[in-house]
Design a protein that fits this description.
alpha/beta, six-stranded mixed β-sheet, 6 strands, globular
Length: 169
């Protein structure tokens, strides 16, 4: 190992790789005129921002009653749309895909938005995990009939970009 190289843990590497996925979302919206701002800054001075926003690090209360965060929330008056965006990256064996049921239940019960997009990348997910998530969404698994079901989508990065091209023309 080169002396200039700093060893990074498996989790640190995964976080770094995950940030690359997240960093591709930002220019996708910037190119469409969205202002990018952290949720905290926006929350403290909403009047200082426009109506086409990509908010970063957006809180919600999880199904466990704790504070959780998703990477983005798109708020658009022009498109009459509010979409929470969660990014998940797993390039090698790990635990991200084991959290899919927790993520799905948070989407159903805890995230307040009607529209939720999950962007998945890396190609290292366990066989069947993404299909399980998509099937859970399609069959409304564990969704009580008493709640209005949400529009939850699971996209690869390519599918996400195609979706933004279609929705935000």
């Amino acid at each position: 190992m080169n002396q200039d190289e700093i060893p990074i843990s498996g989790g640190g590497t995964a976080n770094k790789q995950g940030r690359i996925l997240e960093s591709t979302v930002v220019p996708t919206f910037q190119s469409r005129g969205f202002e990018v701002v952290s949720y905290n800054k926006w929350e403290k001075a909403r009047e200082g921002y426009g109506e086409e926003l990509l908010l970063k690090h957006v809180p919600y209360t999880t199904i466990y009653g704790h504070r959780g965060y998703t990477e983005f929330l798109v708020r658009s008056r022009r498109y009459n749309l509010e979409v929470r965006i969660e990014c998940k990256w797993q390039q090698s064996p790990g635990s991200v895909d084991e959290k899919f049921p927790y993520l799905y239940l948070n989407c159903l019960e805890a995230m307040p938005e009607q529209n939720i997009v999950i962007v998945i990348g890396g190609g290292g997910y366990k066989l069947g995990s993404i299909q399980w998530l998509k099937n859970a969404i399609e069959t409304k698994l564990y969704a009580p009939e008493t709640i209005q079901y949400k529009n939850i989508s699971v996209f690869s990065l390519d599918e996400f970009i195609r979706w933004t091209n279609r929705v935000f023309k």
